[in-house]
Each structure stands twice: as structure tokens, then as C-alpha cells.
Amino acid sequence: MPHREEPTEFHPDQFPPFPDDPQFPSVNLETISLKALESNDPTERERAFQAFKGRGFVYLELAGTDNGDTILHGADEVARAAEQTFALPLEEKLRYKPGNRELFGYKNVGATNADKAGTPDTAEFFNVSKNDMIVPDSEMRRAWPSVVMEHKPLFAKYCRASHATGLLIMDLLADKLGVPREEIRQRHRIEDHAGDHIRFTRGPPRKTAEMPEIQTPSHTDFGTYVACLPLPLLNPCHSQVCSADRQICNSITILMNWLGGLQVWSTSSRHAGPLEPDVPGEWLWVKPRRGCAIVNLGDAAVKFTNGVLCSGRHRVVPSPGEQGKVPRYSIVYFVRPTDSSRLKTLRGSGIPAAEDQDEEGVEAKEWIYRQAMGLGSRHIDVT
Ligand SMILES: O=C(O)CCC(=O)C(=O)O
Ligand SMILES: [Fe+2]
Fold first, then answer.
1. CATH number at residue 132
2. What one-character-per-residue DSSP string does 33-99 give?
3. What confidence score (pLDDT) does residue 226 get?
4. Whose CA is nearest to atom 1 of ligand 1?
5. Atom of ligand 1 minimally distant from the CA of 215
6. Into how many domains does the chain fold?
7. Taking 70 as the threshold, does the pLDDT of residue 367 lie above it?
């Protein structure tokens, strides 16, 4: 059992509410019931499909299913473990910096650029690998702090529930697009090595009312490759990426947060790479909702579907109003294509033909790494 002190800053029951104030305009996301998806409810499946084609973000109501309950209750426990992890001395955390072309481990405050001017970000992350959490200790590929090891069963359970939930959603998207489910499932087998991880994030309290600081810069969730094709603009979300070095990679993201701070760009776009939005619009707040995860597609979903599905642009800023007085935690699970799977446009009746369908595709691991580098990471050893 953990033997560290009780958490002192993650106490969601005491967090102030999201301010009800027009100066914080929020986005209206569809709420999808996980229970209804698990029962194959046709209306709910269709609503989810439309939302993932449109903005690419939904609220997912979790209660009432085993996986949903695991995520809902597990996220609080994971956040308490995250607090203990971040409470370690910086020197110790820095021992877990990613290296050797890996993205797992600790990202310190200021390790990435928040904008083109090179302003440093203000959040710290710890990325805990799914594969290491679900295998016996002897098969783990990395060393982890003892606080992570103490919570390994919790993390393993959380990974399995999140991964299964992501695949359930990907099954419905495959059905709607006329893609055999196995095409997606074989690229996301839980036992196969992948960049999947639980990310703990801690953002510091807001410093001033106007504070322009950025905790996590504008991005789409990479993890699955976006082709470098001049794609037809079938969907406002979709755009072309024509350099082989600018691929994309993350399939689906399951996010739990308790305080405002997440913002989505009001206009759908999916240009990979630039830190700043490249279509006119504004940042809209995503209000956290008790009992719901925020689920969004990543760039791999765009790649697989030749732009039919949307990977929404988002960022994290300090929480608004009174909420900004406390540190902000979020717990994210990223479902990613397995390292050796090939990223290319899939064949399906709902997917427009693409030039890469007959090609072998890019290896997911390489694609994710390149994408992370493109985001301005300054901490990863490229060699
Ligand atoms: O902290 C959040 O609410 C979102 C985090 C996020 O977008 C990410 O880690 O990719
Ligand atoms: Fe994200």
C-alpha cells in the first residue's frame, strides 16, 4: 500500500464550479451514453458517428457499465497517485525523462514550446506506458518510480477499461464506414506494444486574472498517421498534409478532468503540425461534467478514414475564475495504433479512395515520434 502522506491538493469535492459567466464561452458537445453504445443502441451509435465526423469531441456518460465505472472511479484514484508522483523531488522525476525515442516518462514544466515565439509551457506530465502496466514486472521495458509501481494494479485496470472503451467506439465507427472491425482491432491489440499510455498532467494555479500562460499548447492528438496526400475537402475537419515528415498519430483519447482549462478551437480543422490554429475561429471552453469522460479522436482516425473523421484542435490554459486558484489535474488515456502496425487509409464504403491504400504505410511508432518532435518538444533525445 502507498505509504506517502495524504493528498493535499487534489480534492475534487471542494473544487469551485466552472464560472457561469459569458466571458468564458463554452462549447456544446453531444453527450453519448456508454451504456447505450454497449447495448448497440442504433440512435446513440449514429449520434456518436455524427459527432466524431463533426467536431471530433463528445462527452461520454460513464455510469452503469463495468468499464465506465472503472474509468469514473479509477480516475480519482489515478489522480491521487499522480499527485504523489508529482510531489517527488524534481531531480528524481527528471530521472524518468523520455529517451531513446520513447515518449513515456516525465515531461517537466517548460519542456515544450507553447507558441512559435518559444514561450515555455507550464504543465508537467507523467506518461505511464500501458504495456508496462499490464505485464509482470519482469517483462517491463522501463523503470518506474516506486509510487507508480505501488499503483500498478490500478493503472492496469484503468488501461484495460479505457482501451476497451476506445475499441468499442472504434467498432461503431468501423461499422458506419464499412470497414471490417478487424482492420481496426488488429492495429490495437492490447497485448501488442504501442504508444498507449495514461498521462497524468498537473497545471499550476493561475498567476494573474489575465494570465495568458499556456499549460498545454494548441494541438491535435497525434497517434495514428495522417497521409501526405492532397485530400479532397470532403469534410471541414479534413485538410491535406503533403510532407512525409508531417504525419499524424493517436486513435482515440479518453480524458478525465475536474476543472476548466481545456479549450477547443471553434472551427474544425486538422492540419497537422502548426501550434496555432490555421482556420478562423475562437477558443471555446470545455466544461468538465461530473460522471462524463471527454472523448476525442486523434490524428490516426483521420489517417485511417481519409479525413472523414475529425481530430479536433485543443489546448489547455489555466482554469477560469475561482477554479484557477487550485492546481489542475487531468488523467488521459491515449489509445494508439500498435508500434508495428502500418498507418494508411483503410478501405471501406464510407471512406473516399486515397493513393496510399495500396501502399504499405508508415510504421506507427515512427510516425508518433516524428509528430511529437514536430510539436516543439525540446526534451526528447532525437539521436
Ligand atoms: O488536460 C486536459 O484537459 C487535456 C490534456 C490534453 O489535451 C492532452 O494531454 O493531450
Ligand atoms: Fe490533447
1. 2.60.120.330
2. EHHHHHTT-HHHHHHHHHHHHHTSEEEEE-TTSHHHHHHHHHHHHHHHHHHHHHTS-HHHHHTT---
3. 28
4. 330
5. 1
6. 1
7. no
